Amino acid sequence: MRKVAVLGIGQTKIAEHWEFSIRELAGEAVFRALEEASQPPIDGLFVGNMLSPLVEHQSSLGPLIADWIGLRHGEAVKVEAACASGAAAFRSALMAVASGQMEIAVAVGVEKMTDQHPRDVTFGLATAADADYELDQGVSFVGLNAMIMQRYLHTFGWQSSDLAAFSINAHQNALHNPYARLHMAITREDYERSHMVAAPIRLLDASPIGDGAAAVVLAPADRLPPGNRVLVTGSGAATDTIAVHSRRDPLFLQAAWRSARQAYQQAGRQPEDIDFFELHDAFSIMAALSLEAAGFAERGQGPRLALEGDIRPEGRIPICTRGGLKARGHPVGATGMYQIVEVVQQLRGECGPTQVPAARVGMAQNIGGSGATILTHILERD
Amino acid sequence: MRKVAVLGIGQTKIAEHWEFSIRELAGEAVFRALEEASQPPIDGLFVGNMLSPLVEHQSSLGPLIADWIGLRHGEAVKVEAACASGAAAFRSALMAVASGQMEIAVAVGVEKMTDQHPRDVTFGLATAADADYELDQGVSFVGLNAMIMQRYLHTFGWQSSDLAAFSINAHQNALHNPYARLHMAITREDYERSHMVAAPIRLLDASPIGDGAAAVVLAPADRLPPGNRVLVTGSGAATDTIAVHSRRDPLFLQAAWRSARQAYQQAGRQPEDIDFFELHDAFSIMAALSLEAAGFAERGQGPRLALEGDIRPEGRIPICTRGGLKARGHPVGATGMYQIVEVVQQLRGECGPTQVPAARVGMAQNIGGSGATILTHILERD
To answer: How much is the ipTM here?
Structure first.
């Protein structure tokens, strides 16, 4: 396998993009990435998306977007892994280039969620759970996360408001990200006043949905001179049972641990080497579990990193430096690609007030379902 | 890229499998394939499926099926390209093994279509078309194919009943396939009496839907001794505009021609070398167009091969030797995998009365949408 570099990135603001169709939205991100990459010829397109058959009544996003971006007749396919679809598409593109199958591959994550009534979106998101044993029993996706959070608080002795520090950090960082969905600082009091969505999850534990797209152009590293490249040095993918109740320990993200271990080994890195970590805080409890499974905190001690300020841009292990899912927003099938784009921005030093000092090694972790599919990627500036 | 061999195949009968959930159905096919392959350790799973979010309310088939087949924690992902999802998953698995990323990869195509009211399935299938410019204007998937067939008859001077020979051959061959959906011979008179679905498409031009799953286990060729292996020697993937009206020539399947050319080049083969061809006869018109684009007939002359008996098992270019989509059945996201499994059966000489004599080189072509995504694979016995 050869080394792979990022030639260009692109993203749209996460918002209610009623003015854009899904192909136009994806196109915006891809066109920006291709412009940065100086318009190379594209060998293939990998699209990450979860909900378009349900929300947009559109399957077959591969040829739809390939045609729109000017790749008529080229290879194009959609990859789906619920909310991890973005990183799954990225990994497919990465493997195509690393293996020599393609010279230039484009990965784009795109999701439109605001064209339908919210109850249809809630239903769509629940298809990430086990249809037979979770969804059909009436549990929603936030309900599953609420049960995990409740058990976590009980087992490790935290108060729900101890998790507020994750949301406060994410909202603070998003203030400086023009692509973020929410631009508003929040306090612990705001958190405590926010209404209960599914106990113990409050509104300010939960990420907002939205429409958005993010894209990356990948090529063999030797196309660029060494010294100022962004390389993908580690990639891991793992799964767990789709139903939470089937797991031996629902408070440990096995697939996060396994995919992180693969990525660390491939990159020759360990947690101490990671300068910042774009994790999947769909709900604040997931930020804690992700930090623990990836080796940054002991079991049950994730919230301590947030409470002690270690997750801030200048802290020991900065997370959600552009706002995370909580404030940048969570257009589900696009989220994994937003994380990759944000890691590249940090490695390039483009993040202004939330720039991580001397960032050279960044990690992204994207979660599908309640931990059923998890992918971890490490990128480095050489 | 290293050579890849088929270690095992498995399939279920195509039927109304109300007794099986989607994970159980996929499991049936995978378990049979793994048994044939002597239960090797699996590195990754690639699932081809189109409709499960809409029909089964289940996204995230990767971890769902991985867990069910005993691959808990392994890598697993779903690939979607409408009715070409099966071949797209196969190509992903093939590339994973060919590139050295994995030693043993499993590809499974699975679809459950009979759990919902047929109108919901008709709607689901229409999401393979362009949602903005075709579906939302009221055209169904059969309607699009009807327009293509009407134009074809007009341009090349055929009668619709001239295409009946494709359906007659498919039904005849399916009589000897225990996995086929339909076991009934038909005549030209049956065809002419069959009711009109969307003029000029009659019921006996159209493939039946159904529930089914088909799977293949892939490994590096050097795991088996030469002499009696089935190797994948060519793989091609291409796209076209998703909307039929955007094509310069709606009567030529550009993506079929391009993907076939890639597969021929990779395998060092040309049409004359192909002993049989499992093509995508979702509607009889597609059989004609596929034969023409893949180089077996001049433009507009596909029906002649059927009328002159060249497509029969003992003919010049046998097609649909196990019944094709028309009579074996068309569980959409699984179809591409059924084609691969059937090619392997022919190369092994397991097809009884419809065995192609001395079959050494077989080809499969899987079509997504009305020609938007097309993949072509060549397999050979060495």
So the answer is: 0.97
